[in-house]
Every structure is written in C-alpha cells, then in structure tokens.
Amino acid sequence: PSQLPSEVPSQLPSQLPNQLPSEVPSRLPSEVPSQLPSDVPSQLPSQVPSQVPSQLPSQLPSEVPSHLPSEVPSQLPIEVPSQLPSEVPPSVSPTLSPIVILTDAPSPPPQDQSIRRIAEQMNQFYDASRKNELARDRTDLRDMLERNFEHARDVEDLIMQHAHDKTHKPKERDKRQLNDLDAGDYFADLPDFITQADRDPFKCRCVDCDEDEVCGGLWKGKRYPGRGTSKPEADTDVDLHSEKVHIVVSHCKSSLEWMSDFTKGHAIASIHIISKCGDPVVGAPDGATIEVMPNVGRCDHTYAYYITSRIAQRVLPEDLEDSVVIFLKDDISSNNFHQSGYWNDFGEMIQLASSENGFACGIIPGDVQFGPHNFFLSAYHEVKTLFDFSMENYGRNIKGYASDGVEFTSDHKTLGSWYASLGVQQPPSELVQVCYGGVFGASVSNIMKRDMLVWKAIEKSLSRGSNIQEGHYAERSWAGLLSTPLQPFKVKALFDKADGAYLNKSSMHGALLKRPKLYLHIGVAGTSSTELLTESVVADIAKLKSDGYNVAVHGKWDGGIYEFPNVDRLGSCMWSDISKREFPDHLKEATVCPDNLLLDLSEYMKRSAKASEDMVIVNPWLIHPETAMSLGIYFDPVWDVKVVIYYRRYFEWITISFEKWREDIFEYTLSPHKALIPSTSFRYIDFLREYCKRLFYGKDVNEDGFPVRKLDHDTHDTGIVSMQQVNGKVYFNQFDPTTNFEVEELTDLQEYTYFVAKQYYANPRFRHGVNIVNYHDIRGPETNFYCHVLHDAHNACKTAIEREESASKAAEMRTESFAQVDPILPFKPSHALEEIVIAGYMAGRLQFDDTRSKKLFVQQILLWIKMVHSALQERKLSITDLPVECLYQFEIDRLLEVSLAYEKALLPEFFRSSKGADGLQDEFSQWRFCSVDTAMILNEARWDFLFEAASHYDLPEQPKAYIHIGAPKTGSTSIQDTMAMDMGFLKQDKYFLAMHGQIAKEAGEYIIDNMLVKCDQLGACVWSEEQRQMVVQGSGDKNAGLCPDYLPRTFNAFLSKAIAAKSNIVISNEWLNRPTSESGLVDILDGWDPIVVIYYRRFFDWMISAHYQWHFDISMGTVELLKGKVRLIDFMRMFCGRLFASNVRHSADDSDLSFVDLTDTQEYTYHAWKRYRKVPQFENNVKIVNFHDGHIIKSFYCDVLSAERACELETYRLESKESVVKTRSKKSTTYVDLAIGVYGKQSVAHAGGHNHDHDHDHDEPIPMTMEMLHAMGDRFQERMAAKGFVEDDLPQECLTKSEEALLLNVSLAYEKILLPETYASGGEDATRGHFFSSLASGKFCSVDLEGVMGDPRWAFLFEDAI
Fold first, then answer.
1. Highest mean pLDDT among 128-132, 255-259, 718-722
2. Crossing angle for the helix pair 753-761 and 889-906, nearest 10 degrees?
3. DSSP state at residue 93
4. What's the CA gap between 760 and 768, in Å, rounded?
5. Is the pLDDT confidence value at 634 over 50?
6. Exposed, middle or buried by CB within 10 Å (0-12, 13-18, 19+), for 62?
7. Where are the alpha helices (DSSP H) in 263-323?
8. Half-sphere exposure at residue 1297, Cβ-oriented, CA atoms within 13 angstroms
9. What integer pLDDT is reported at residue 1117 of this predicted model?
C-alpha cells in the first residue's frame, strides 16, 4: 500500500529481530491474528528513537519479513484504529424488509508490509474492505427494491432473487473454478476447511455447536474458551471459586429475596445495592451495602456510577485479573422479561465473564417472527446497522415508575452519534456483541481497560433524566465496550452463518439473523445419489449432528434406533387419491399415509428448530407430481427449504430408467395376459421411442405412439400413412415436428431431473431453494452433498472426502458407464433373449395358459430363455449373430439435442466448460442405441429353430393350495373342526392343513403331523398396513393387526414339509376374506397353484345371520356411535343404504346388474369373489360352493378337494346321520335391542341438554357397559313374562315394501352372478320361496322403539330401567 493508516502506535517494540528468514512466501495466509507475539529476539538496535517522526515515508522498505511468528495470542486489542468508506449509503427501510443481505469477506492483501504493522494492517484491511462491499451490496439492494417494489407481490422474493443474482453472477472466481474443473483438480473448489487442520486455531468449524472448542456457542454468545486454564485451547470449565465475584444491584421497588437462591453455591466478595426510587430495600442479602441515589438514568446510570465511583473500593489491585462484576436489576423474573430468548443463570454468567470474552449477557437471544417466517437471533450485531439505531419513544412502564417530565429524545439522533460523543473509537470489528435486558457480567480487567473518562462520560450522559433515549443507547453499548473484540476469522464465521441483519429501530436493530435450513434431498433415481446418501447419511449421523444437522432418512428408521421419525411414506401423505390410483398394484401399500407420520415429523422438526439445528431429509418418493404443492403447505414457514435434485445426462438417465423398468416388469407386472404385456416398449429402442415420441416425431404421433405417415404423401382411406425409406434411411427433415413446446418439454418421463426441478421451482415456497447437483462432477454425490450443498458441514465433508480417497469411489464413479460393454454388441445378451421370447409369445409361437399366475409365467419365460440360448449354442451361433435394429439417425440427433438442452438449462456453467457440452457429445458419440430385431427373427424362416423345442421346456405341474376364506356365517367353523378331526384321512389324500382355531397341545408346538396350528393371525401377515390399522380400530385390539414373529417362519416350514411329502395344502381362515388379503397371499404362496374357495349363502339370509354375529360382538363404542340403533332393520339399512336410496326398481332380470355393488358388506361372498378375481393369479381360480346344498363338508371334500378317503368318510356319516356339522342356537336379540335403544335415546337427550331433572349435586353416573345392557334386556323379558306378555306382543317396525323388493332382487342378482347354472336350474325359484317364507315369519322386522317408548301401555318396562 502507498500509505500507512492514519493512526500509528506511538512506540516501537523494545526488541526487534536481527535476522529475517531466507525464504519469503508470495502471499500471507487468508486470516491473520491481530497481535504480535510476546516472544521477541533479545537484541535491540543501538539507537531507538523515543518518538515517531511527525512525517512518515510514503512507501515501505523493499525487504519484507517472510512470515508471521508461529505463536500468536488469541485476543485483539480493545481499541484498534479502523477505517470506514468515505460514503456510506443509508440502510434499507424496515418497512420494506427486515433483512439485509450480507456478503462474504474478501481475502487479505499480499504480504508487502513490515512485521511490526502486520496484525493492525490486517485488521484494518479486513474491516474496511468488508464495509465497502457491504455498502455496495446494500446500495444494489435498495436500488433493486425501489425499481421493483410497486410490482412485487412478495418482498422476500425480491430479497431472495437479489441473493440468487449475486450467487449466479459470473465472476473471475467462477471462471477460475471452470478452469480448475477443466483441469480435473479434485480440490479446486472445495471449501477452505478441507485443506486445513482439524485444530486450526484460526478457523471456526461452527458457531452454534458443542464440538468447536474455539467458536462453539459464539452465535448466541453463550460459550467462549476459558482463561487461566492449563489447556487454554480447550473449552474447559473455569474454576468459579477462584474468581472473586462482586455484585451491583440497581434497585427501585422490587424485593430482593430472590437473590439468595440466585447466588446459592457461589462465594460472593461484595454486594452493593443502589436504590433510586425511594422505596425501602426488602430482602437485601446479608453483608450487602446499600446506597441511595436520585432516580436518573435507571439501571444503566447505576452501573456507570458503580464503575466510576465504587469498583476501585471493592477490588484490590492484586485481584484485578481474578474478579468479575455481575450487574443486576432488582427484578429478573419472567414478569420483567420482554425480550426474545431466556434468562442465563448465575453460574454461567460468572463463567462467561471469566472467559476470554470477559463479558456475559443475562439473556440468551431467541428468535423473531416476520409474518409467517421465523428467524433466529444472534448476540452479535452488524456495527453499521446497530449505530443507525434511533428509538423515537419508549412507553413500557409495567413497574409504574414516576415520570420526571424530562423529554425522552436526546440531542444524539442515533446510537452512533452518542457512541462517538463518549470519546471512544468505533469498534474495531464489523460485528459487536449486544446485550439486552440490563443484566450482564464483566471481568474487572476488561472494565479497567477502558479509559475511566469513557465511563464518566456515560454516567454524565445518563444523568439527564429517568426515561431517556440515552438509556437505550447505553443498553446496546455495554457488551461492545466490555467484551473482547472478535478476531477476523470469527467475524467471517458469523457472517457465513447469518442470512441477514435485523432492521427494526425500535428493537434489536442490526442483530444477525438466520433461518433454520431444511435440505430436502429427493434424488433423482438413476443418479446413484439416493442409494449412496441413504447409507452415508445414517453412517455419518454423528458427524452431521456435530455439524448442527438432524436427519430423517427414507428406509432407515429401523424402529427408531437413530432417533428420527419414520419418513418412508412421507410422499403418500402428500399425494391426492387420484394420484395414488396411478400407482401399480405392487406399490399400492406405499401409497398409504400412516396416521402419526406427519405429527411425528412435525414434532421432530419443531425440536430441531428450537435447538437452532438444521435438517436433512432424504426421500426419493418426493419426486412425484403433486408433492411440491403439498409439501409447501405442510412445512412450517420457519424453515428455509433447499430442494436437492441430482442431474445425470438424459441419454444415460433414460437408459438406466429402462433397466429399472425392465427389472420391475419381470418382478411385479409381467403377466400371461398379452394385453397387459408392454410389447410396444419392451425393447430398449421401443422404450426410447415410447417416451420420446413427441421429441422424435412431433405432431405425427398417433394414438399408438408412433409416426406412420408416408413420406411420399400417399394416404390410405383410413387416413393412416406409413413410413417410407429412401435408400434405406429415414430422414428427419421430411417429418414436421412442429410443436408449441421447447425441446426440453418433449420427453415424457416426469421423474427426470428437469421436470422434478420444474415442479419445485413452480412452487413459491421452494422457488429460490432448488439446488441442482451434477452427477458428472469430478467428486462423488456424497462429497458434493456434504461439501457444496450443506452449509458448513465441516466434519461430514471431511469424512466423505477421506472415504472417497481411501476407497477410490470417485474414480469408480467417473469410470462407471452404462454404455455398451462391447461396441460390437450394443445391448445386453440377457435383454436380447428376453425380447425374443416375449416376441415369440406375443406372436403365438410360444404358448402358456393365461389363467396361471404371473410368477409361473415368469418361470416359464426363464425356461424359454434357456431354450433359445441352447438353440443358438447348438447351431454354434452367438448373440452377435442376431439381427439388430437401431434408432434412425434423425432420432439419434434429436436425443443428442435434448440431452444438450437439458444440461444447458440445468447446469449452464458446467455446460460451458470443456467437461460440459463437449464432454457430453464425446460420450454420446460412443453409444449405439440398438436392440435385437425381433420382427426379422419372427418373419424369417432361418430363425424358426429358436422355437422348435418349446414343447420340451414346459413348467412341471405345481402343488395346489386351496384357500378357504369363508364367507363368514357359511359354516366355516364346522368345516375347520371336521378337517382337524379328519386330518389323518386327509393326510392319506395328500393334504396338509393350516386352519383357524386350532391350538397346540404343547408350548412351542406349531406343526402337528400334517397340520399347522396357532395360525389364526395369518391374515395379519398378508394384509396391507392400511387394512391392519382398520382391523385394529374396528376391533379395539391393538394386537389384532399384528403378525406374530413365529408365524412366517413356521408357515414356510409347513410349506416345505408339504412339498417334501408331495402333498397339496388347505388353508381355511375367514380373516383372509378381508381386503388386500388377495395380493398378500400371492407373495406367500409363490410356487403353488392357488384355488380360492368361497361359500355362497343367499344375501338376505346371510344378512340375518351376520347381524346376529355382529350383535354378539358389538361394543359400547359402536352402540354410542349408532345412537342405540342396532336392530336388524338398522343393520340392513346401514349396509344397504346406497341400495335402498337408489330410488330405482332394480331387478335380477336387468341387463345391467351393477346395482349389486350398492351394498357395503365387504365380507359377503360377492365382494370377496370380485376382489380375488381382480388378481390375475386368482382370476379363473375362484370356486363358489353353494351353502344351501345342505352338505357343506361333503361338498368341500368331494367337489372341491377330490379327497377320496375324506369324501367317503363324510358320505358315510351323512348316510348314517352322523354328520358333525354344528349350528349355534340363536337367542332373540329383541329385548337387548330395546335396552340399547332406550339407552341410546336417553344419551341423545342428555347430549342435547334435555334432561332438566338431572341433579348436578349428585355424583357422575356410572358408565354403561354391554353387560349392564344385557342385564337390562333380561329385566325387560322378566317384566313382560310377569304381565303375561311375550315378545311378539311388542309393536314391530319392518322394512318398507320398496326395501323388501330391493333386498330380494339384489339377492337374486348375486346368485345369478355367482352360481349362474344353479340360478337357471331352479335356484331363482328356491331363492324367492326362501325369501317370502322369511318375510311371512317376520324375519325382516324388529321391535319398534318409538312405539314401545311412546306408548303408556309399556311404561312398566322402564320403571328404574337405567
């Protein structure tokens, strides 16, 4: 520099070095401590001037010391000269926004100063350059706001856009980074801390954590390194008993009785109470001195007076370094707390005052709200904004202090003006600590470092009156005057952490602010980021926590061992029902939102925000459409959400998507039904054409997805035209690809990065927080995420880099390629064989029974693949000899064009680098987009040999699994008990049994010969999570939906034993009638040929029996929910409500029998049959058995199982009238219905406030139970008998004629659908006869509740009834 600072120390050091090092580095380190070391060489020059000359030379000597000393003290001088820019623009108006965007500090200048001045010069340079850049930044922001505010809907959008513009504005640094990237420098743009030692004393790892011994706790001013310890670099506790603690109390009206508890456990050297309001001091601690003064300046005047007039009397010179003063008001209760934050405790204040900082605030800062947003406050304030503070008035006076009539406003309009009037220089750092609330502590040594004239000036200024503006200036100045100034690296760390500075001249003007950040990593699939981060985030959870991050990771809940909630199905809680219906069957369970997920996650996020911790959520399901909108509503506005989406080049990504799609097809959806086979996209090139059809063909895309227009414009009568080749090629320029969209919009896989980013960017909540991470970067996804996406994740970042270096993961990822392994063979051999087999099956060259299961079909496909492979080997042919079909050149060109467009849109800077567009085109040129030509193989006779051996590659016959699922009330218990009794005969017939209701004879016994016992809860092992929850809620038993741990294991052992015995199996369990059982059974019966057996009972007759069972199991909760209406007619109207309300005269003779779906009894035979038939494995394997044949066991043995010995046995029993079929005697429910109806009516009356006779002085009534209601029904029956009445004497309420007709017709329709042959051969007449017989006997009637309770004739029933 051409000039030295305006202020220069008056004396030179007493000792100067006599020798400089031989090697001189070209520049200084980025951060330099503020003071010179205490150790200096022992020799001095012979003559040392006693004073600095009045005129200094304009240039420094040409020789410059090479480096700083190795040992540097940690503190800056209390007063350091500073320079400000000559022009400082005004701050942004707080009416526009409470945030000021801060900028990063620049690097220090090259080393060209003498060692004598280096520390001071560095501080001055840092201070001045930071202020200049901040001033420019504010000017830009103000100008932008003035230009746009009239049209802006959201001021925050402007602020964030400004920050975005600054981040993305091309700079020299960006150009250097691109050059570094081109050069392949791994460490080129990694954060500085990566190349620094873990214990670098001049680098903060974090400012609000426990792990950083230097800076941890700095944000809130609640922890600093200790002083006077054996290990000064460690954050060890100071021995508080070695400190001499003095207390000064500013008293007005409040009692001081709280002080003994407040100071308990601490030795107090002195307590001085200064009372100002004329009230007596109540509760003064023993030994305290009391001084009475006029009430001026409030507590701040008291403190200044104590420093100028009393501190020297209480602190001996020898105790100066070991003494602290705690400054207290007479009331530090919650009633006198109006700041944001919480009170610090006495011990903590002593420790902080004794630390390097030399100052402790009595209030730890909290947070502040701006509309929907919440920001966390720092104890540190930006000096320039703080000095602009100017409170116009102050009316808070909860203590009722008397007014002295002195005007509030001061001659000094701002804090900066008042501060300058004290004769003290502006703080040497851009940031200064501020303490609100008038309660603090300070080391005496720091107090005495200030010139006493400063304290006297404060005392004099505060003597003007009681409630004055100067008091608020003083409140904001104590910490800055008494604390140790921050070193530059700490200033930088605080600025890096902050999102801005608070603008509010009536409050905490200038306070640094930050919002908690939520990093939402959503993938995308095909970029490896989810797979890697799912593992690494959990593995590095301790590192991330030390960096201030809480995490929640999809697929890693593991019962809560990592202390984060289960977020696996967070996406399902965001999607609409319409969106959920688009998911394939094997993913239906993943669309169910668990009841407590959102609540648990919200609580977890609230705890994180309260602890000032950021968050990382990893969940790949959040890429689906609709997710962004719902998440934007769900996330608390307190969070600053950063959406992290990874990018991979489109042609690579769609290839990976094809691979995953093919895997899913074979695992979940490949069906023997040809209509369900995606033959038009099964091959790689077909997949590309399907999902790029608009890109490739423009408006010439027909409904089937392919262009078929003739290029010579020959059009057939149908309007469909075909492709024409010219010299064997198809030319793109002969198509018309006109479209209203940019090229990026012409592909159709919405899971790609571009569309996911577009979805989140379209939501205002996420617009400024979408982060695109480059998969093709030289570093791996983990390192990019930890080091570049997360803010200051020092520990996690270092861990990721070390892991990459040690395992060479980065190199592996860079060399990973999904291009063809062999350029001669541009597809996978396995794909070629699969495609030949599928094409042969679709063309009828290969045959398979499409009623068989999907899994069997896949097994058959594998056999056929083996057949094709063997046929090629026999002819000594390889896969390379197969004909190949590739994309046309125009399709390839369009695929390259869109891949380039995506990279340019998503990563423009990378695109401009040599690794970007050029690298993409180089890689693309090495790819071939081809598949085996299946059309040629099918059409040319020379390939017929591939299918000739098909008859030798059929699947062997599989054992059968008969699954009897009821329906309920069709004799299931009799069937199960009889089979258990006949298990020996059934074993001879080659049947193993797994039936509900069978118990073990001994503990731990699960398989008894050929029967599995204790398998009642098999249904819970196959239901969806949603169904499990429904069962639990309906039964009131939390264990009803649980699959016992032993059952899956023992069931598999049971299957293995049956296979070993070459036997079939029978499963009989009515719980498998519940919805979702059908899909779960497919999974556990892999390798078996399933046959579902359902018994049919006429609907009206089944409803009567089902009501009795329901009535038997009813709970008080159901009674209260239905308000006592539990009669048979209530039951029928409840489950046939839609049918009865249809107002249409439905008939079984109608051509449209869809009215059968208007009943809501999901356990009935028809509904179970319909659900099972939707599953391809069961579609043609559901057998309906007629309950009304009268021989339900014989039908099962003889007609269903064809079990010869068991059939003979049951036939003999029937002929000899020894059948074991059991029926339950049914007691009438009339009297219990009446009791429940009376209770329900009285409950409604009580709820409506109609019980005027209720005596409120009496105790609460005893809660009603079902036992009490049954007892009441018994009393009704006894009273009826005593009067000579029977049940039929009670008035009846029956179904209406319309309801009766609909009940009959729906019953007829069910039989017509389920047993069409039986219905046509006399079943219809039998059903009608049965119905009218039931009608005549009054089976569709119930007791008339209103008729009984409203008729005085029956009043005797209700005397003291309840």
1. 255-259
2. 40
3. P
4. 10
5. yes
6. exposed
7. 298-309, 311-314
8. 0
9. 85
